[in-house]
TrEMBL record, chains A, B:
Domain of life: Bacteria
Organism field: Vulcanibacillus modesticaldus
Gene Ontology MF, one: hydrolase activity
Keyword Hydrolase: yes
Protein name: ADP-ribose pyrophosphatase
Record Gene3D superfamilies: Nucleoside Triphosphate Pyrophosphohydrolase
GO biological process: nucleoside phosphate metabolic process; ribose phosphate metabolic process
Amino acid sequence: MNKMEKDYIEQTISSTTIYEGKIIKVDVDKVRLPNGKESFREIVHHSGAVAILAISKENKVIMVKQYRKPLEKTILEIPAGKLEKGEKPLDCAIRELKEETGYTASNMSQIAKFYTSPGFADEIIYLFKAEDIQPGAAKPDEDEFVELVELTIDEVNELINDSKIIDAKTLIALNYWQLEILKKRL
Amino acid sequence: MNKMEKDYIEQTISSTTIYEGKIIKVDVDKVRLPNGKESFREIVHHSGAVAILAISKENKVIMVKQYRKPLEKTILEIPAGKLEKGEKPLDCAIRELKEETGYTASNMSQIAKFYTSPGFADEIIYLFKAEDIQPGAAKPDEDEFVELVELTIDEVNELINDSKIIDAKTLIALNYWQLEILKKRL
Protein backbone atom coordinates (compact mmCIF):
# COMPACT_ATOMS: atom_id res chain seq x y z
CA MET A 1 0.00 0.00 0.00
CA ASN A 2 1.50 3.35 -0.97
CA LYS A 3 1.27 6.58 1.04
CA MET A 4 -1.66 7.99 -0.93
CA GLU A 5 -3.85 4.92 -0.48
CA LYS A 6 -3.23 4.83 3.24
CA ASP A 7 -4.03 8.53 3.64
CA TYR A 8 -7.26 8.33 1.68
CA ILE A 9 -8.80 5.24 3.27
CA GLU A 10 -12.26 5.68 4.77
CA GLN A 11 -12.48 3.68 8.00
CA THR A 12 -15.83 2.00 8.67
CA ILE A 13 -17.29 3.14 12.00
CA SER A 14 -20.48 1.11 11.62
CA SER A 15 -22.47 -0.63 8.89
CA THR A 16 -26.25 -1.05 8.64
CA THR A 17 -27.86 -3.46 6.19
CA ILE A 18 -30.93 -1.79 4.68
CA TYR A 19 -31.99 -4.52 2.26
CA GLU A 20 -30.94 -8.02 1.37
CA GLY A 21 -32.51 -9.14 -1.90
CA LYS A 22 -31.97 -11.80 -4.54
CA ILE A 23 -29.54 -9.73 -6.65
CA ILE A 24 -28.37 -6.91 -4.41
CA LYS A 25 -27.65 -6.16 -0.76
CA VAL A 26 -27.74 -2.52 0.32
CA ASP A 27 -25.66 -1.23 3.24
CA VAL A 28 -25.22 2.23 4.67
CA ASP A 29 -21.76 2.59 6.19
CA LYS A 30 -20.81 5.33 8.63
CA VAL A 31 -17.20 6.23 7.79
CA ARG A 32 -14.31 8.31 9.09
CA LEU A 33 -13.04 10.51 6.23
CA PRO A 34 -9.32 11.27 5.69
CA ASN A 35 -9.91 14.74 7.25
CA GLY A 36 -11.25 13.13 10.45
CA LYS A 37 -14.90 14.01 9.80
CA GLU A 38 -17.71 11.48 9.67
CA SER A 39 -19.86 10.76 6.62
CA PHE A 40 -22.15 8.05 5.22
CA ARG A 41 -21.63 5.83 2.20
CA GLU A 42 -24.52 4.03 0.50
CA ILE A 43 -23.23 0.77 -0.90
CA VAL A 44 -24.85 -1.77 -3.23
CA HIS A 45 -23.26 -5.22 -2.94
CA HIS A 46 -23.51 -7.54 -5.95
CA SER A 47 -22.09 -11.01 -6.58
CA GLY A 48 -20.31 -9.94 -9.78
CA ALA A 49 -20.89 -11.03 -13.34
CA VAL A 50 -19.31 -12.12 -16.57
CA ALA A 51 -19.73 -10.85 -20.12
CA ILE A 52 -18.62 -12.55 -23.31
CA LEU A 53 -17.25 -11.14 -26.56
CA ALA A 54 -18.05 -13.99 -28.95
CA ILE A 55 -17.08 -13.67 -32.62
CA SER A 56 -18.47 -16.12 -35.16
CA LYS A 57 -16.69 -17.76 -38.11
CA GLU A 58 -18.42 -15.13 -40.28
CA ASN A 59 -16.67 -12.39 -38.23
CA LYS A 60 -19.87 -11.30 -36.54
CA VAL A 61 -20.28 -10.53 -32.88
CA ILE A 62 -22.99 -12.43 -31.01
CA MET A 63 -25.31 -10.06 -29.18
CA VAL A 64 -28.63 -10.23 -27.38
CA LYS A 65 -31.59 -7.87 -27.19
CA GLN A 66 -33.02 -7.83 -23.70
CA TYR A 67 -35.64 -5.82 -21.83
CA ARG A 68 -34.04 -4.08 -18.86
CA LYS A 69 -36.58 -3.14 -16.23
CA PRO A 70 -34.41 -0.43 -14.56
CA LEU A 71 -34.29 1.41 -17.91
CA GLU A 72 -37.83 0.44 -18.98
CA LYS A 73 -36.47 -0.39 -22.40
CA THR A 74 -34.94 -3.08 -24.59
CA ILE A 75 -31.24 -2.71 -25.26
CA LEU A 76 -28.55 -4.48 -27.24
CA GLU A 77 -25.81 -6.13 -25.17
CA ILE A 78 -23.20 -8.81 -25.38
CA PRO A 79 -24.17 -12.03 -23.55
CA ALA A 80 -23.68 -11.69 -19.80
CA GLY A 81 -24.84 -13.08 -16.50
CA LYS A 82 -24.35 -13.11 -12.77
CA LEU A 83 -21.88 -15.33 -10.97
CA GLU A 84 -23.56 -18.02 -8.93
CA LYS A 85 -22.32 -18.62 -5.41
CA GLY A 86 -18.80 -20.09 -5.57
CA GLU A 87 -18.82 -20.19 -9.36
CA LYS A 88 -15.58 -19.39 -11.18
CA PRO A 89 -15.83 -16.59 -13.76
CA LEU A 90 -14.62 -18.90 -16.56
CA ASP A 91 -17.28 -21.52 -15.77
CA CYS A 92 -19.90 -18.79 -15.60
CA ALA A 93 -18.85 -17.41 -19.00
CA ILE A 94 -19.14 -20.86 -20.62
CA ARG A 95 -22.54 -21.42 -18.95
CA GLU A 96 -24.00 -17.99 -19.77
CA LEU A 97 -22.91 -18.04 -23.41
CA LYS A 98 -24.64 -21.41 -23.84
CA GLU A 99 -27.79 -20.44 -21.90
CA GLU A 100 -28.36 -17.09 -23.60
CA THR A 101 -27.20 -17.82 -27.15
CA GLY A 102 -26.74 -21.57 -27.55
CA TYR A 103 -23.12 -21.08 -28.60
CA THR A 104 -20.25 -23.09 -27.17
CA ALA A 105 -16.60 -22.04 -27.53
CA SER A 106 -13.45 -24.13 -28.09
CA ASN A 107 -11.48 -21.39 -26.35
CA MET A 108 -12.60 -18.91 -23.69
CA SER A 109 -10.11 -16.48 -22.13
CA GLN A 110 -10.41 -13.48 -19.84
CA ILE A 111 -9.50 -10.19 -21.54
CA ALA A 112 -10.49 -7.60 -18.90
CA LYS A 113 -12.15 -7.03 -15.57
CA PHE A 114 -13.77 -3.84 -14.36
CA TYR A 115 -16.09 -2.30 -11.80
CA THR A 116 -19.27 -0.90 -13.32
CA SER A 117 -20.19 1.79 -10.75
CA PRO A 118 -17.42 2.13 -8.14
CA GLY A 119 -19.06 5.19 -6.58
CA PHE A 120 -21.96 3.20 -5.11
CA ALA A 121 -21.64 -0.49 -6.07
CA ASP A 122 -19.06 -3.28 -5.86
CA GLU A 123 -20.24 -5.11 -8.99
CA ILE A 124 -17.28 -6.45 -10.96
CA ILE A 125 -17.52 -7.80 -14.49
CA TYR A 126 -15.07 -10.32 -15.89
CA LEU A 127 -14.94 -9.95 -19.65
CA PHE A 128 -14.12 -13.02 -21.72
CA LYS A 129 -13.39 -13.60 -25.36
CA ALA A 130 -14.91 -16.74 -26.85
CA GLU A 131 -13.16 -18.21 -29.88
CA ASP A 132 -14.05 -20.96 -32.38
CA ILE A 133 -17.71 -20.83 -31.41
CA GLN A 134 -20.29 -23.41 -32.48
CA PRO A 135 -24.05 -22.73 -32.62
CA GLY A 136 -26.52 -24.82 -30.60
CA ALA A 137 -29.80 -24.55 -28.73
CA ALA A 138 -30.13 -21.74 -26.14
CA LYS A 139 -31.43 -22.50 -22.63
CA PRO A 140 -32.48 -19.18 -21.07
CA ASP A 141 -33.50 -18.87 -17.40
CA GLU A 142 -37.26 -19.00 -16.92
CA ASP A 143 -37.46 -15.25 -16.21
CA GLU A 144 -35.09 -14.32 -19.05
CA PHE A 145 -36.26 -13.36 -22.55
CA VAL A 146 -33.55 -12.60 -25.06
CA GLU A 147 -33.31 -12.32 -28.83
CA LEU A 148 -30.11 -13.19 -30.67
CA VAL A 149 -28.54 -10.62 -33.01
CA GLU A 150 -25.32 -11.08 -35.02
CA LEU A 151 -23.50 -7.99 -36.29
CA THR A 152 -20.44 -7.15 -38.40
CA ILE A 153 -17.86 -4.63 -37.17
CA ASP A 154 -19.26 -2.03 -39.60
CA GLU A 155 -22.78 -2.53 -38.25
CA VAL A 156 -21.41 -2.27 -34.71
CA ASN A 157 -19.58 0.99 -35.48
CA GLU A 158 -22.69 2.50 -37.03
CA LEU A 159 -24.76 1.58 -33.96
CA ILE A 160 -22.12 3.03 -31.62
CA ASN A 161 -21.92 6.27 -33.62
CA ASP A 162 -25.73 6.55 -33.52
CA SER A 163 -25.75 6.00 -29.71
CA LYS A 164 -27.76 2.80 -30.21
CA ILE A 165 -25.32 0.75 -28.13
CA ILE A 166 -25.55 2.25 -24.66
CA ASP A 167 -24.39 -0.51 -22.33
CA ALA A 168 -21.01 0.02 -20.66
CA LYS A 169 -19.70 -3.60 -20.72
CA THR A 170 -20.80 -3.92 -24.36
CA LEU A 171 -18.96 -0.75 -25.39
CA ILE A 172 -15.79 -1.99 -23.65
CA ALA A 173 -15.98 -5.35 -25.43
CA LEU A 174 -16.76 -3.90 -28.85
CA ASN A 175 -13.99 -1.31 -28.57
CA TYR A 176 -11.62 -4.15 -27.69
CA TRP A 177 -12.72 -5.96 -30.87
CA GLN A 178 -12.34 -2.76 -32.92
CA LEU A 179 -8.85 -2.10 -31.50
CA GLU A 180 -7.82 -5.68 -32.29
CA ILE A 181 -8.94 -5.24 -35.90
CA LEU A 182 -7.22 -1.85 -36.32
CA LYS A 183 -3.94 -3.07 -34.80
CA LYS A 184 -3.84 -5.90 -37.37
CA ARG A 185 -4.10 -3.31 -40.15
CA LEU A 186 -1.20 -1.18 -38.87
CA MET B 1 -41.69 0.29 -30.95
CA ASN B 2 -40.93 -2.89 -32.87
CA LYS B 3 -42.57 -6.27 -32.25
CA MET B 4 -39.77 -7.64 -30.10
CA GLU B 5 -39.76 -4.71 -27.68
CA LYS B 6 -43.52 -4.90 -27.22
CA ASP B 7 -43.39 -8.64 -26.57
CA TYR B 8 -40.59 -8.43 -24.03
CA ILE B 9 -41.83 -5.55 -21.87
CA GLU B 10 -42.22 -6.33 -18.18
CA GLN B 11 -45.37 -4.60 -16.88
CA THR B 12 -45.13 -3.14 -13.38
CA ILE B 13 -47.82 -4.61 -11.11
CA SER B 14 -46.65 -2.73 -8.02
CA SER B 15 -43.55 -0.91 -6.77
CA THR B 16 -42.24 -0.68 -3.20
CA THR B 17 -39.56 1.80 -2.18
CA ILE B 18 -37.13 0.08 0.19
CA TYR B 19 -34.66 2.92 0.72
CA GLU B 20 -34.33 6.54 -0.27
CA GLY B 21 -30.80 7.82 0.38
CA LYS B 22 -28.59 10.70 -0.72
CA ILE B 23 -27.16 8.94 -3.77
CA ILE B 24 -29.49 6.01 -4.47
CA LYS B 25 -33.14 5.03 -4.17
CA VAL B 26 -33.94 1.32 -4.05
CA ASP B 27 -37.26 -0.07 -5.31
CA VAL B 28 -38.56 -3.60 -5.58
CA ASP B 29 -41.00 -3.86 -8.47
CA LYS B 30 -43.45 -6.72 -8.89
CA VAL B 31 -43.64 -7.36 -12.64
CA ARG B 32 -45.60 -9.37 -15.19
CA LEU B 33 -43.13 -11.27 -17.38
CA PRO B 34 -43.66 -11.78 -21.14
CA ASN B 35 -44.79 -15.37 -20.39
CA GLY B 36 -47.54 -14.10 -18.06
CA LYS B 37 -45.81 -15.15 -14.85
CA GLU B 38 -44.99 -12.77 -12.01
CA SER B 39 -41.51 -11.93 -10.77
CA PHE B 40 -39.66 -9.25 -8.79
CA ARG B 41 -37.04 -6.78 -9.99
CA GLU B 42 -34.67 -5.03 -7.58
CA ILE B 43 -33.91 -1.60 -8.97
CA VAL B 44 -31.36 1.02 -7.89
CA HIS B 45 -32.30 4.52 -9.06
CA HIS B 46 -29.49 7.03 -9.50
CA SER B 47 -29.48 10.63 -10.78
CA GLY B 48 -26.88 9.90 -13.46
CA ALA B 49 -23.38 11.20 -13.85
CA VAL B 50 -20.81 12.63 -16.22
CA ALA B 51 -17.22 11.62 -16.93
CA ILE B 52 -14.60 13.63 -18.77
CA LEU B 53 -11.81 12.55 -21.13
CA ALA B 54 -9.47 15.53 -20.82
CA ILE B 55 -6.23 15.54 -22.83
CA SER B 56 -3.52 18.09 -22.04
CA LYS B 57 -1.32 20.04 -24.48
CA GLU B 58 1.40 17.50 -23.63
CA ASN B 59 -0.90 14.73 -24.92
CA LYS B 60 -1.52 13.31 -21.47
CA VAL B 61 -4.86 12.24 -20.09
CA ILE B 62 -5.95 13.85 -16.82
CA MET B 63 -6.89 11.21 -14.26
CA VAL B 64 -7.67 11.04 -10.56
CA LYS B 65 -6.85 8.53 -7.86
CA GLN B 66 -9.75 8.13 -5.49
CA TYR B 67 -10.66 5.83 -2.62
CA ARG B 68 -13.86 3.98 -3.42
CA LYS B 69 -15.60 2.71 -0.33
CA PRO B 70 -17.67 0.01 -2.12
CA LEU B 71 -14.41 -1.57 -3.34
CA GLU B 72 -12.40 -0.73 -0.19
CA LYS B 73 -9.58 0.44 -2.41
CA THR B 74 -8.07 3.37 -4.28
CA ILE B 75 -8.50 3.26 -8.04
CA LEU B 76 -7.49 5.32 -11.03
CA GLU B 77 -10.35 6.96 -12.93
CA ILE B 78 -11.07 9.81 -15.29
CA PRO B 79 -12.72 12.81 -13.59
CA ALA B 80 -16.44 12.22 -13.00
CA GLY B 81 -19.32 13.26 -10.84
CA LYS B 82 -23.03 13.04 -10.25
CA LEU B 83 -25.61 15.25 -11.92
CA GLU B 84 -27.21 17.67 -9.50
CA LYS B 85 -30.98 18.08 -9.63
CA GLY B 86 -31.94 19.77 -12.92
CA GLU B 87 -28.30 20.14 -13.99
CA LYS B 88 -27.48 19.68 -17.66
CA PRO B 89 -24.77 17.07 -18.39
CA LEU B 90 -22.58 19.66 -20.17
CA ASP B 91 -22.71 22.06 -17.20
CA CYS B 92 -21.95 19.16 -14.85
CA ALA B 93 -18.94 18.12 -16.94
CA ILE B 94 -17.49 21.66 -16.87
CA ARG B 95 -18.12 21.90 -13.11
CA GLU B 96 -16.72 18.46 -12.21
CA LEU B 97 -13.57 18.86 -14.30
CA LYS B 98 -12.85 22.16 -12.51
CA GLU B 99 -13.72 20.86 -9.02
CA GLU B 100 -11.74 17.62 -9.21
CA THR B 101 -8.75 18.68 -11.29
CA GLY B 102 -8.70 22.48 -11.55
CA TYR B 103 -8.72 22.27 -15.35
CA THR B 104 -11.04 24.33 -17.53
CA ALA B 105 -11.70 23.50 -21.19
CA SER B 106 -12.21 25.80 -24.18
CA ASN B 107 -14.29 23.08 -25.77
CA MET B 108 -16.36 20.33 -24.13
CA SER B 109 -18.42 17.93 -26.27
CA GLN B 110 -20.36 14.75 -25.54
CA ILE B 111 -18.81 11.67 -27.15
CA ALA B 112 -20.89 8.83 -25.65
CA LYS B 113 -23.56 7.90 -23.16
CA PHE B 114 -24.07 4.55 -21.50
CA TYR B 115 -25.74 2.68 -18.67
CA THR B 116 -23.29 1.23 -16.18
CA SER B 117 -25.33 -1.69 -14.77
CA PRO B 118 -28.60 -2.07 -16.68
CA GLY B 119 -29.45 -5.32 -14.90
CA PHE B 120 -30.13 -3.62 -11.57
CA ALA B 121 -29.51 0.13 -11.87
CA ASP B 122 -30.62 3.04 -14.06
CA GLU B 123 -27.39 5.03 -13.69
CA ILE B 124 -26.45 6.69 -16.98
CA ILE B 125 -23.07 8.29 -17.65
CA TYR B 126 -22.60 11.04 -20.21
CA LEU B 127 -19.02 10.96 -21.44
CA PHE B 128 -17.46 14.24 -22.58
CA LYS B 129 -14.22 15.13 -24.28
CA ALA B 130 -12.53 18.29 -23.01
CA GLU B 131 -10.25 20.08 -25.45
CA ASP B 132 -7.76 22.97 -25.10
CA ILE B 133 -7.59 22.55 -21.35
CA GLN B 134 -5.96 25.06 -18.99
CA PRO B 135 -4.71 24.16 -15.49
CA GLY B 136 -6.03 25.95 -12.38
CA ALA B 137 -6.88 25.34 -8.74
CA ALA B 138 -9.08 22.33 -7.88
CA LYS B 139 -12.08 22.75 -5.56
CA PRO B 140 -13.08 19.25 -4.41
CA ASP B 141 -16.26 18.59 -2.39
CA GLU B 142 -15.63 18.48 1.34
CA ASP B 143 -16.02 14.67 1.45
CA GLU B 144 -13.97 14.09 -1.71
CA PHE B 145 -10.22 13.36 -1.66
CA VAL B 146 -8.57 12.94 -5.02
CA GLU B 147 -5.03 12.97 -6.36
CA LEU B 148 -4.26 14.17 -9.86
CA VAL B 149 -2.34 11.88 -12.24
CA GLU B 150 -1.38 12.67 -15.87
CA LEU B 151 -0.53 9.79 -18.20
CA THR B 152 0.63 9.30 -21.78
CA ILE B 153 -1.15 6.85 -24.10
CA ASP B 154 1.75 4.38 -23.66
CA GLU B 155 1.45 4.56 -19.87
CA VAL B 156 -2.31 4.09 -20.19
CA ASN B 157 -1.94 1.03 -22.40
CA GLU B 158 0.52 -0.53 -19.99
CA LEU B 159 -1.84 0.03 -17.06
CA ILE B 160 -4.76 -1.43 -19.03
CA ASN B 161 -2.72 -4.50 -20.05
CA ASP B 162 -1.68 -4.99 -16.40
CA SER B 163 -5.35 -4.74 -15.23
CA LYS B 164 -4.46 -1.63 -13.22
CA ILE B 165 -7.28 0.38 -14.79
CA ILE B 166 -10.45 -1.37 -13.69
CA ASP B 167 -13.17 1.25 -13.90
CA ALA B 168 -15.72 0.80 -16.70
CA LYS B 169 -16.25 4.46 -17.69
CA THR B 170 -12.49 5.00 -17.65
CA LEU B 171 -11.86 2.02 -19.96
CA ILE B 172 -14.51 3.30 -22.38
CA ALA B 173 -12.96 6.78 -22.45
CA LEU B 174 -9.37 5.53 -22.80
CA ASN B 175 -10.32 3.10 -25.57
CA TYR B 176 -11.99 6.00 -27.35
CA TRP B 177 -8.73 7.96 -27.09
CA GLN B 178 -6.72 4.97 -28.28
CA LEU B 179 -9.06 4.40 -31.26
CA GLU B 180 -8.80 8.07 -32.20
CA ILE B 181 -5.00 7.85 -32.20
CA LEU B 182 -4.90 4.60 -34.22
CA LYS B 183 -7.39 5.89 -36.81
CA LYS B 184 -5.14 8.90 -37.46
CA ARG B 185 -2.26 6.52 -38.20
CA LEU B 186 -4.20 4.48 -40.76
